[in-house]
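Module 6 notes. Inverse folding takes a fixed backbone as the condition and produces residue identities as the prediction. Think of it as a translation problem where the source language is geometry and the target language is the twenty amino acids. Below is one complete input and output pair. Work through it position by position during the lab.
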């Protein structure tokens, strides 16, 4: 059964080295997290899985990687400087600030008693800094609040160099920054986070069709990577909720322990961004279709996901507790492609005689898969650790291995064990991982 309580995942992440509060030795830095040895592998796997589906397995999407620091002109044109804000209210009782749209009633969440809030005012979420040695107007730069603008401002560059034509997409994975008023729920809402965004440029009259297509395709991606369908839903935004650039947005939501929360937004950005940048830069952002002799500004359908939130959702959905040999165990039933390690090599004993063979096996497997090597503790405890971090297979090297050239493969989900010849091990593991991990 998936985790019912966020603390189950928060504790596991800390205990096993997935995610640590940032600057913990100084008391932590609210809403920032560091990804440890396992978390950094898993976060990378989440992003790689997205790139695999969105870029590698399609012939109509290219990947780019653009600057985090942006000139004010970019965000003036995009509307972020004037419109990217949340309504903020102050509580006169506890002196704290809240997002007005997140207050259920007129009850202060801190004091649990009615109080008067100040009138709402717009709070811009952009992080501002300066470039170069002199502070001042001319040196102001902004940290991007979405990766999207890097794709819009490079539309012509990509169009000219990639030989794509609408419908086609530009994809990007990278950090974004927002001065959130109420960060929280672990890695769900932080001020620094990673996005996986696709700007899909289409002829204007195909926009509605592609919007539907991407809503379906993106929901299916989460299911393919292990989230049960009943833990996902698509919710269409009400008009009042729409971002300044959107003519229609649907969120893919996940059932978090505290309720439904957004994993990804799919927005119809129309020709808003390209037209804004065309106007502000005085350049043309158009596509000329030689087949029809038509010149048009493409419309954009944008599936925009968050890598950190998605990782949290995969962890929550994969979490399970069961009983093996009368002992309770915690197991992360992660999709093999998302698990930090696909295989762990475990020499039964630390005795010198087993180490060279175990290291040789490790080297063979590590050439293809991310592997762990662990020779500490009793074997049962090592299996438990690998279960808890989601490793699909353990390979145990024992003293018989020296005689019969065989090792034991143990499966995470069933705990079933079988003996396999070392020569056939890589093929066997590859077959068992199958398409899920090649
Ligand atoms: N370019 C469109 C855009 O940025 P968004 O809905 O504001 O749309 C897309 O962001 C995704 O980025 C969200 O669905 C969420 O997964 C992630 N995201 C946004 N703000 C976040 C935050 N403060 N912390 C973590 N993830 C965040």
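Target side of the pair, the amino acids:
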């Amino acid at each position: 059964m998936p985790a019912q309580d966020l603390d189950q995942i928060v504790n596991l992440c800390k205990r096993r080295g997935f995610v640590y509060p940032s600057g913990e030795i100084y008391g932590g830095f609210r809403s920032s997290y560091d990804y440890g040895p396992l978390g950094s592998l898993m976060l990378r796997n989440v992003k790689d899985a997205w790139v695999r589906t969105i870029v590698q397995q399609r012939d109509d999407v290219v990947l780019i990687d653009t600057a985090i620091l942006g000139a004010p002109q970019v965000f003036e044109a995009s509307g972020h400087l004037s419109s990217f804000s949340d309504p903020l209210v102050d509580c006169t009782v506890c002196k704290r600030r809240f997002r007005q749209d997140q207050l259920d009633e007129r009850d202060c969440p801190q004091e649990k008693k009615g109080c008067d809030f100040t009138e709402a005012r717009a709070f811009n979420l952009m992080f501002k800094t300066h470039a170069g040695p002199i502070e001042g107007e001319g040196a102001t730069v902004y940290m991007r609040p979405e990766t999207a603008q890097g794709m819009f401002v490079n539309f012509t560059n990509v169009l000219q160099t990639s030989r794509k034509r609408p419908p086609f997409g530009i994809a990007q994975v990278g950090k974004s920054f927002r001065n959130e008023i109420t960060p929280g729920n672990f890695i769900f809402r932080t001020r620094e986070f990673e996005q996986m965004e696709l700007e899909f440029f289409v002829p204007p009259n195909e926009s509605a069709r592609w919007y539907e297509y991407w809503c379906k395709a993106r929901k299916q991606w989460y299911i393919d990577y292990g989230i049960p369908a009943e833990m996902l839903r698509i919710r269409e935004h009400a008009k009042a909720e729409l971002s300044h650039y959107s003519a229609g947005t649907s969120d893919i939501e996940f059932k978090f322990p505290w309720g439904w929360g957004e994993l990804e937004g799919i927005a119809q950005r129309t020709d808003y961004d390209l037209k804004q940048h065309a106007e502000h830069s005085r350049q043309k952002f158009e596509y000329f279709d030689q087949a029809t002799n038509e010149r048009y500004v493409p419309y954009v359908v944008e599936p925009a996901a968050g890598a950190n939130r998605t990782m949290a959702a995969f962890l929550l959905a994969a979490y399970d507790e069961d009983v093996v040999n009368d002992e309770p165990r915690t197991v992360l039933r992660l999709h093999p492609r998302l698990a930090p390690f696909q295989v762990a090599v475990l020499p039964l004993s630390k005795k010198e005689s087993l180490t060279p063979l175990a290291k040789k096996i490790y080297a063979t497997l590590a050439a293809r898969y991310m592997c762990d090597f662990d020779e500490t503790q009793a074997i049962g405890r090592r299996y438990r650790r690998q279960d808890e971090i989601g490793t699909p297979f353990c390979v145990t090297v024992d003293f018989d291995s020296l005689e019969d050239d065989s090792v034991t493969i143990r499966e995470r989900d069933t705990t079933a064990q079988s003996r396999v010849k070392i020569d056939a091990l890589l093929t066997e593991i590859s077959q068992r991982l199958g398409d899920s991990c090649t």
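Reference fact for the lab report: DSSP finds 13 helices and 24 strands in the chain.
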